[in-house]
Amino acid sequence: MDENMAKKRKLPKIGLLYLDYVLRFFDRSNFKGWPDKIEQVVYHWGNDKDRFIAEVKRKKIDILVGNIPATAYETFAEIAKALPNVRFVPSIETQFANKSKENVTLFCEKHGLSHPRTEIFYDRDAGYEYLKKCDYPIIVKRSYGPSNYGGYYVHKVKSEKEARKLFDTKKYHPMYIQECIPLRADIRVMLIGHKPACAFWRVAGEGMELTNTSQGGYMAYDDVPMGALELAVEASKAAKAEYWACDIAEYDGKFYILECATAFAAFPYFRDWIGQYLMWDFSEGYFKKPHIPLYNWEELGKINPSLLRTMRHIEFSRYVPSADGAIYLNDREGEWDVELTEESIPEDIPDNSHLFEFIKDEKDLPEVVTQEARKGEEIHEQVQDREMTIEDITLTELMTLHGMEEDLAVEVMSYIRTHEIESLDELAKIEGIERQTIRLWAQELKEKLDINKADEKALSNIKAIGKKLAKKIVEYREKNGKFEKLDELLQIKGLGGKKLEKIGRYVAIKSKKSSDEK
Amino acid sequence: MKQLYHSYDEAVELFTELARRRPELFRVETIGQTWEKREIALVTISREMQSAEERPALFFTGTIHAREWIGIELAIAFCQYIDRNIDYDKTVQEALEKTTIYLVPCANPDGFEYSRKHFSFWRKNRRQNADGSYGVDLNRNFPIGFVKSNNPASNVYGGPEPFSEPETRALRDFVLSHRNISIALDYHSQGNVFFPAHDFRHEDTIDTTDLNVLCANMAEEIRKISDREYGIHQGKPPAKLISGSGREFYYSQGIIASVVEVGTRNISDYLDDMIEHIREQIPALLSAAKEAPNYAANLSMPRPENFRATFVGKDNVTLEWEPYDCKEGEEEVYFEIYRSTREKSYCRPFNLMGLTQANRYADNNLVPDSAYFYHIRAVNRRSGKKSPFAPVLAIRTHVDEDEFHRTYFPIPEKTGYVAEKAKDNASHFGVNSLFVGVSESKGVSYAIVTVPLKTIPENAIIKRARFRLYPLNRVGVTVEKYGEWNVGIVDSSKMGDIKKFDDVKNMEILSYIGRPTPSNHLSQGIWRSWELSEIECAVLAKEIEKGEVVLRIEGPKELFIGRNSQMMQWDLGYGKFGGGLAFRPHLEITYTMPPNRIELFPKKSYTVSADATKEDEIVCGFDEKGRKIYATFDFELGSLPSRDFLSITRAYMVLNPINVYAKENIRFHLEMIDSCEEKDYETIKQRHIIENIGYDVSVNELKNEEQVFLFDTYALQEFGNRLQEKKGIAFVLRPSSALKLVKNSVVQWHSSHPEFTPRLVIEYLNKRRKPVSAVNSLKYVVENSKIKLSWKNPTDKDFRGVFVIKNPFRKPISPYDGDKLYGGRDNWTYDDFGALDIDKYYAVFSYDDVPNFSEPVIVKYKAKNNRR
Ligand SMILES: Nc1ncnc2c1ncn2[C@@H]1O[C@H](COP(=O)(O)OP(=O)(O)OP(=O)(O)O)[C@@H](O)[C@H]1O
Ligand SMILES: [Zn+2]
Q1: B222-268 pLDDT, tens per residue?
Q2: Which of A432, A411, A406, A413 minimizes the C-alpha distance to A292?
Q3: Over the stretch A172-209, which tens digit does the pLDDT of each residue have?
Q4: CATH number for the domain that contains residue B165
Q5: How far apart are the CA of A431 and the nearest CA of chain B, in angstroms?
Q6: With an 8 Å Cβ cutoff, are A439 and B37 in contact?
């Protein structure tokens, strides 16, 4: 038994990813009960990439946990490539939306997530042209920058004239222009493992624009609409995020994502929850997953108002940033209150007011930081999506599959670890998993069947193929040997180009004659 | 138990096969995809597939609730039936002649499969909610009345927002893109009841009648097959109304929509029950399909307007409506008039009373003091197309000449139920529903209903009576097909405590009343009546002296294995769970009284012959020349009570012959005429006959025996009129013969003998014949968002109270033509649930103790912002 346990318990090596000048989100204390040593690796900006990579390797880190600020995003995309065996948590792809508003838009569009209509112009002439014909008011945002503080670079613009003036002076590039949703409040939803763990209304102060939340305003924890939670869950699953936050607008019964990211201000107890969740994920179910009931946050509304005021301050103060990007401090170590978070009860939030004076304004940032930021400005990438493959799937990824449940995910995970899986169909052996469910997962995983290995049954499970065609394919294969190219399928009677296109989404050539027959 | 049911894939396979084999008749397509990526199948049945989309259509949806398997099974059986029968079956051919049928056999395939394989009781779809729980109740996910909820784990969780689910979006998109749909039926289990769409208001909608008739016609088809009676219940406040259902969405699109709740279990015994349910629903569906063209939005003929009763008598009624104003031209259109004796009735050929092209219809031969319901629709003579129905017209015939009517409501504190296992039976009185039957949790349960008999004379003779209960719910309290519900008159002199179970159980029953109601006739939303026989009426009459009658209602007392309830819930009409006045149990009594009797003697009698007029002598026959000899006698009516308070129930003349000098072939007739001064032969010959009295008698029948000439109804009426006008009345005795010439043939009658002198016998009741004055100063105000009505009552001493009636469609002329809001002596009432945003009429009728109803005083409520 001991040996078994020990084997099962072979845990990955965790490293915490820190950056100089950046507020630290996690701390060892958030991983209470993790039996092994937790390493720390600090990125010092500038030409620190290679040293950083070497340190991770030297420390034999399997998982690197931490948020990457927008300005370091491109650097870390490179670092991750150099460390293919290290799992970044959240993954570089998951953190895609952290980098810029533009990325938020790209992310929403790619996954069909409801988002205000947004136009992005690299060509200023085209942008100014657009300003002539669009409906006002509009919302203009700076897409990317070393810091994005509480709506400081978000403007509500009421006329073309005003818009031109804004772009003339601010020179925002690209021009990020968004439909203005009439709001007095938006909703922040924070999720852990695709489940809303905290949510609240952010209400603007009397006579204030919501885009400029530096003063006044308050938070309300009650009656957060389910539609907002559902949209946030959808986004979290799309991002395959271990933890996640969304700002959501509601208008006329519809919900819109304004912003989403893995970096956000959170109470210490909340970071503990994330830590516990990550331990469940990293240990593949060995550690218990925290149980966080929906609407637990409504209880927050009942706690001491003076405390709440402090918390509101964290969210809305001009100098204390919120959801996106990181939080810069002039304290290089970036260690402020995190050490005070041993006990995960909300009451132990420290009085942060002393910190405000240390937090930097953008222009005061160290040169190393702003320089690196400029690098990121040039790169506008496609949405990245980490292909989920059954071999190295994580629990958080499994939990994005429709109909997946926590216990089942752990079960599936242990099956995957103990079997060489050729086809997802094998999962039918696990109690409670249906053929239809597997079909569905196969689509979501975009796992393609090996056309040279799949048997008739597996092929016929694919809707586009069906029973008859599956039979023909297998017959063809038996007669003519393995497929070299997918086009060969066209030789089969009744299988045309259109069909092939459809089928191509589900099958691939994974094993070829030569290599296989050796 | 589940083996005989089809899986979703098997079902789709069957439909696909049908479509492959008969593409001209069936088509299968996909209208969307579920969360688990199952295709939602839609089957089209049409006799002309190319033009299917142009034909008016019936839209069938099934199994939107996963565990309610009837939908998918019925869809399969229905398609197979069409396939088998269409070539020779007239009913099928007619149903499809102009109609397309769209079926979504299973609107919730994920949930259905989950229910089949894992958890029979599953109801929702298989969305994964934000909290990790599963499922949205698809029938709460539509926008009309959508309710937000923070409890995804709930069985009726409606989802984060309307149309958040792919299944409901598929239904929406299909319906919005198929404007030819005119009727939608959503199949559920269980309850044996139709739930037509509603608009969340208390007032009927303009098409409530159409919905009810459609359902009632289907119900009648069902009854034909299984003798099972289906209820019909359109939800109204204050009852809790379901929100966000598909039905209300379809309805909001102008579609006649209803839910059909089939059977008594979700997944019923296939061979015993499911097959029967399917069999009974097929003809019902066909009858609905046939109606689809009549409700097609673009083709629809306007419904007849202002259908009303312009006269209501004791046995007849005159109906009128506006002349038909439509482009098709009047001569093209005729009207169908249906009559029935119960609410929410069908309109089938066998209760079609008349067809007319006029805008007036008189219906006769009605039973006095009885409720009647009339339906009318227009028909285009050429195309056969029918209009929707005018809102149903309800009337009650007046009581007969000798009759009085009472409707008694229970005494709340003496009305309730007692259950074997209930802790505090006394607490059920006056506040809860009446639970009757047996269940695991309650044990055997009886209801006690105590009805006051206070305003009815002790010597009353009860002619007819019925006890009525409103079945509230058989969905929650499922009822299987066994057992019966009986009502008995309790011997209250021997009974113990009506609030103690044992005492109630041991009550002695003097007589059960009416026929028992078998379980398959219990139907939600349709009144049940126990009609008393004459003998039972006599038993009831004996209770009058006690001032009240105690009724005990009992149901089955044993449970079937595996079932935990065979319990019926009846509305008490009081308390916060009760539906109020409109749904209160009641006892309706029609009674009469032993008559008063008065005998009148002639002021004078004459014999009038061609030669002479003789006083104080009554001879009648033919003289020596063969000329007629008449006898006549005058009565003064001054001694009778005032006609306004007198109801003549019977009248007859008695004559006694003395001598017969006549041949056999002579007969004598008694005629009633107005009395006049002149008694000469010519005047008598020129007389105006008011009416013949009784039958003529032949010489043979005389034999010295007393002769009785009975007034018929018309004669009584005419006599009454003379009485009213204080006119004198006279009778003429006239001879007749079959031969051309008869001579010297006479009969002499007594004219002054103290015992045998002619007498006019009148039996009568002291009964008001005219209503008391109407109320005045009727007005309404809106107070606390409720409409409050007030009026001034008349001061007549016979004033007993008022009826307040509401009708959103027309001025109610009969006190039964609308929702009764109030009955009693107050001079104000609230319309507690009335909607403020629709126009309507309120009518107040005052009544006396007969009751005679005054003309209505009517006020029109004008909505501030009319939403309909
Ligand atoms: N399209 C929009 N229509 C209306 N209001 C908007 C829109 N986009 C953003 N806002 C408002 O402006 C606020 C700031 O926008 P956003 O979240 O994109 O910027 P931010 O600088 O990251 O601010 P924060 O840190 O407060 O989220 C939002 O919280 C929202 O209330
Ligand atoms: Zn249902």
Answers
A1: 999 989 899 998 887 777 788 899 999 999 999 999 999 998 776 66
A2: A406
A3: 888 999 999 988 788 999 999 999 999 988 887 655 55
A4: 3.40.630.10
A5: 11
A6: yes
- The token pair at B843 is 């009518």
The C-alpha atoms of residue A495 and residue A515 are separated, in whole angstroms, by: 27
Residues B428 and B570 in one domain: yes
- Model confidence at B750: pLDDT above 80: yes
Residue of A195, A253, A295 lying closest to B161 (CB–CB): A253
Longest Cα–Cα distance of chain B, Å, equals 115
- Domain harbouring B857, CATH code: 2.60.40.10
Structure tokens at A395: 């629990």
- Distance between CA A389 and CA A410 in Å, rounded? 16
Pocket perturbation via mutation, ligand 1, pick of A259, A318, A327 by most ligand atoms within 8 A of CB: A259
pLDDT of residue A339: 31
Does residue A296 sit at the B interface (CB-CB below 8 Å)? no
Cβ contacts of A333 within 8 Å, gap of 6 or more: A20
d(CA B472, CA B444): 19
Q: Helices marked H in B814-859 — which ranges?
A: none
Examine the pLDDT at B719 and tell me if it is beyond 80. yes
Instruction: Say whether residue A331 is in contact with chain B using an 8 A CB cutoff.
Output: no
Do B461 and B524 share a domain, yes or no? yes
B608 lies in which domain range?
A: 602-757
B597 occurs within a structural domain:
no
Residues B442 and B532 in one domain: yes
Q: Which of B35, B159, B160 sits opposite A402 (nearest CB)?
A: B35
Give the residue extent of every domain in chain A: 3-94, 390-445, 450-517
Last residue of a domain, one of B559, B592, B625: B592
For residue B93, the surrounding DSSP H or E stretch is helix B90-97
Domain A450-517 superfamily per CATH: AF1531-like domain (1.10.150.280)
B320 and B290 fall within a common domain: no
Does any ligand 1 atom lie closer than 6 A to the CB of residue A181?
Answer: yes
Per CATH, A3-94 and A450-517 having the same topology is answered: no
- CA-based nearest residue to A339, from A327, A355, A350: A350
**Number of other residues whose CB lies within 10 A of the CB of residue B229:** 20
Residues 77 to 136 of B: which have CB under 8 A from any A CB? 113, 117-118, 126, 128-132, 134
Task: Encode pLDDT of B625-645 as tens digits.
Answer: 989 999 999 998 887 888 889
Interface test mutation site (partner B, options A222, A224, A226, A463, max chain B beta carbons within 10 A) = A226
The two tokens of residue A369 are 């930081």
C-beta separation of A229 from B157 below 8 A: no
Distance separating the N- and C-terminal Cα atoms of chain B? 48
Length of chain A: 518
* Judgement on whether residues B141 and B196 belong to the same structural domain of the protein: yes
Spatial contact of B510 and B296, defined as CB atoms under 8 Å apart = no
Q: Are A384 and A96 in contact (CB under 8 A)?
A: yes
Domain total in chain B: 5
Q: Take residue A196 and report the two structure tokens written for it.
A: 């809303």
Q: Using a CB–CB cutoff of 8 Å, tell me whether A196 touches chain B.
A: yes
Superfamily for the A3-94 domain:
Response regulator (3.40.50.2300)
Inside any domain, residue B766: no
**Taken in order B392, B393, B399, B404, is the CA torsion positive or negative?**
positive
The nearest CA of chain A is from the CA of B165 a distance in Å of 12
Phi, psi at residue A189, to the nearest 5°? Answer: -120, 130
Q: Please report, for the domain that includes residue B721, its CATH number.
A: 2.60.120
* Chain A residues in contact with B131 (beta carbon < 8 A): 195-196, 293-294
Domain membership flag for residue B403: no
Average the pLDDT over B40-62 and give the result: 96
Q: Which residues pair with B530 in a beta bridge?
A: B467
Beta-carbon separation of B37 and A405 below 8 A: no
In a domain, B366, yes or no: yes
CB contact under 8 A, A294 and B152: yes
